[in-house]
Write the structure tokens for this entry.
Amino acid sequence: MAPLLRLYNTLTRAKEPFAPIDAGNVRMYACGPTVYDAAHIGNGRPIIVFDLLFRLLRHLYGEGAVTYVRNVTDVDDKINARAAERGISIRALTDETLAAFHADLRRLGVLMPEDVNRAGQRPVFIEPRATEHIREMAMMIERLVAAGHAYVAEEHVLFDVPSMPDYGALSKRPLDEMEAGARVDVAPYKRSPLDFVLWKPSKPNEPAWPSPCGIAAPGRPGWHIECSAMSWKHLGETFDIHAGGIDLVFPHHENEVAQSRCCFGTPVMANVWLHNGFLQVEGDKMSKSLGNFVTLREVLADWPGEVVRLAMLRTHYRQPIDWTLRALEEASRTIDRWYETVGDTGPAAEVPAALRDALLDDLNTPSALGELHRLDDPAALKAGAMLMGFLGSTRSARAQAAVAASGVDVATVERLIAERKAARAARNWAESDRLRDALAAMGVTLKDNKDGTTTWTVEG
């Protein structure tokens, strides 16, 4: 029996014991990126936090007993505008942006599908793209119309909010406040100001698909229906955990709940809703006008990924985080000290109980990091740090900085190593050898360690 995990549930506004629907297949969904521009450091926070939760769930229930879905939004007004501005296709833009995002995540120590999925086995980490789930969206829209929870108006399909008596239960916003916000998007064909778009006609040169509900003109989905359709496809009508940033509670997550519950007639969409807090930079809200807007790529150009990850996890995920230079400097010194302590330690020991118990208390990372600081046993430190996603590169922060100074593109090296790891897992030895040769041509030497990690150095 797994130790008791307690999580703060936004739906109930209380910290509750986590009881999965099926302990043999714990199911979790997290809202991922909209791929039109470089991700900023605020985008990195939920990815890191929920990567830690994924790691903890795998530790508690077993590596094959947790299914994690992190979506990609690749159809959106911002995507259309940016592709037109750059004069490239929408697919070219989204592929390029997603590849850059993946490279950043690898450097942050975030698990990727190729790290955990095994050939011939059910995938446990799925990264669905919205454009690959249009059929599921159309099916849900048609069911909602048939059930009287949505209607067609001027080639749009809209969700009929008043048809759901307890709409607003997740965000707990007063009706007049929700209506005030909804009036920003007033349209004459709406029955109620709160009604939101499920499907809309496409403009010239925009992505378009055959419309549902007998609408003749081609169109594209609204934003909210995407996550309902992707979570349904991969996790079912009701699942265990839905996660995302606090800014998504209303209207995005509220509307997801409405669509899914009214489509399937279920009392809940997800049993637990987790939301991380906002991020500020040196005490101020991040803003391009203030000149403190920082992308992940810019931060990773100056700091190793493990340092950035540690700076993120120093603050409890539900609290606002103040992103400062001082925090990065302290994190860098800590990472160096941990590597010096671990040295050439062999396989990790058992995860220390005190550290595990801190994480079981709603991912209390400040307490967990305090436990790591108190550890002087190398094997125990390695076990605890690796559970939290640290010490995965097998080199210190200073050594990582030295590699960066050599001119080798670290993100490319880590991507090729991840691809080689996937090829080896699939027993595709020819592809594994090809990737090793490609890395060697860059001056990179690999060492495959007994614990499954791969160490790399640059010839100098």
Observations:
- The CA atoms of residues 150 and 160 lie 5 Å apart.
- The first helix runs from residue 41 to 61.
- DSSP finds 17 helices and 16 strands in the chain.
- The chain has a mean pLDDT of 90.
